[in-house]
């Protein structure tokens, strides 16, 4: 099925551990995004990639790094996880930054203990 | 700076109309969107409106845009229990990513 695939769906980390959240899209979209969703906070943009080879910080980039590996894949890395990074992480893609509508993945639920 | 505000909760009875409101701050928004999130799932695009339009209708959904007041609303006619979800308003400002509101939880009782 066409869309945005995120792995893993669930993860528990200990404080200080590192991990990479994977995201891949098969719609030939140019732009990709990482958001986090916290109760009562809505979705907040962590990083985005307008096109292959570019990445930019969003509203809450601290503690995260990203890699736009190729046009299909955009990964999010937590180098040293903290409890404040417990959240649901969503990857999304769009044809380009000005096109209407994003396609979202189903999310990664991350708990840091 | 950009900000999108929504009320957090709305409760309606099945068969009634639901109206979810949103205000945004950036007058240069090109598109405004409504997304729906069901429990445990990602966000799905419900509908969108271009900034030069006042209204858009799509089956049971009606979007109204008041650019002067920077106010956007989503009306769901004949609300069903399957409409229970979180609804997000979002604005698109050219050159950056979508800015989302905090979401309105719609609860539909039978």
How would you describe this structure to a colleague?
The complex is a heterodimer of chains A (113) and B (110). Chain A has strands spanning 4-7, 10-13, 19-25, 31-38, 42-49, 56-57, 64-68, 74-78, 87-94, 103-104, 108-112. By secondary structure, chain A is mainly beta. Chain B contains no helices and eleven strands. Chain B has strands spanning 4-6, 9-13, 18-24, 31-37, 43-50, 55-58, 61-66, 71-76, 85-92, 99-100, 104-109. In chain B, the strands form two sheets. In chain B, strands 2, 4, 5, 9, 10 and 11 form a six-stranded mixed beta sheet that branches. In chain B, strand 6 (55-58) and strand 7 form a beta hairpin. The A-B interface holds A 4, 31, 33, 35, 40-45, 48, 58, 90, 92, 97-98, 100-107 and B 8, 30-31, 33, 41-45, 48, 88, 92, 94-103.
Q: Considering DSSP H and I runs of 4 or more, what fraction of the residues of chain A is helical?
A: under 10%
Overall number of strands of chain B: 11
Q: What is the rounded distance between the termini of chain A?
A: 34 Å
Q: How far is the first residue's CA from the last residue's CA of chain B?
A: 41 Å
Biggest interface reads: A-B, 24 and 22 residues
- Count all strands of chain A and give the number: 11
Count of alpha/pi helices of chain A: 0
Return the string of H and E elements of chain B: EEEEEEEEEEE
Helix content of chain B: under 10%
Q: Look at the structure and give the mean pLDDT of chain A.
A: 93
**Average of pLDDT of chain B:** 91
The number of distinct helices of chain B, counting runs of at least 4 residues, comes to 0
Strand content of chain A: over 45%
Content-based structural category of chain A: mainly beta
Name the features.
heterodimer, A: 113 residues, mainly beta, seven-stranded mixed beta sheet, four-stranded antiparallel beta sheet, B: 110 residues, six-stranded mixed beta sheet, 11 strands
């Amino acid at each position: 099925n066409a869309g945005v695939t995120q792995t893993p769906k669930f993860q528990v980390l200990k404080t200080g551990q590192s991990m990479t959240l994977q995201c891949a899209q098969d719609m030939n979209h140019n732009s990709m995004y990482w958001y986090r969703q916290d109760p009562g906070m809505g979705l907040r943009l962590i990083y985005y990639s307008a096109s292959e080879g570019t990445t930019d910080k969003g509203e809450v980039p601290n503690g995260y790094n990203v890699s736009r590996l190729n046009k299909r894949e955009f990964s999010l890395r937590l180098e040293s996880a903290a409890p404040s990074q417990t959240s649901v992480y969503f990857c999304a893609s769009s044809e380009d930054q000005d096109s209407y509508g994003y396609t979202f993945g189903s999310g990664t639920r991350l708990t840091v203990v | 700076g950009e900000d999108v505000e929504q009320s957090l909760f709305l409760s309606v009875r099945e068969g009634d109309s639901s109206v979810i409101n949103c205000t945004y701050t950036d007058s240069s928004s090109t598109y405004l969107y409504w997304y729906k999130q069901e429990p445990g799932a990602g966000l799905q695009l419900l509908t969108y409106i271009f900034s030069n339009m006042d209204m858009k209708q799509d089956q049971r959904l009606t979007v109204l845009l008041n650019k002067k007041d920077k106010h956007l609303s989503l009306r769901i006619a004949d609300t069903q229990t399957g409409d229970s979800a979180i609804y997000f308003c979002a604005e698109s400002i050219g050159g950056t990513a979508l800015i989302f509101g905090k979401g309105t939880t719609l609860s539909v009782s039978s």
